[in-house]
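REVIEWER CHECKLIST
Item 1: Sequence provided? yes
Item 2: Single chain? yes
Item 3: Sequence as submitted:
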Amino acid sequence: MSSSCEAWRRRSGAAATSPPHEHGHHQGCEHDRHHQQAEDRTQEAKQLAALQVEDAAAAAQRKAVEADCDKFLATIVGRSNEATMRYFILVVAPLLDPAAVSLLMAATSRKLTF
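Item 4: Structure as written out by the authors:
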């Protein structure tokens, strides 16, 4: 607590055990409030930075796994990674498109009752 807050407490007779900032808009306490907000922002910035580091690590790991999958498929097919992915898309897309259309039709169809 700042010395101006302590001086206000002595002048006003506020209890020594009362929490700071309880006595209104005293200018010294206003400074303390801004100081506390700055400390809170600093802590939150540190937490955000830690989360961003974790996110970057997860993204790097995800890319490594994707690269391993590409290499695995390329080894099986015996082609380059790019050619393998093109073949994979050409094989999977015709299989999944009809399934997606049929699921969409099933989800949107209404049972007619007479």
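Item 5: Key structural point noted by reviewer: The chain has one domain: 3-108.
Item 6: Recommendation: ____
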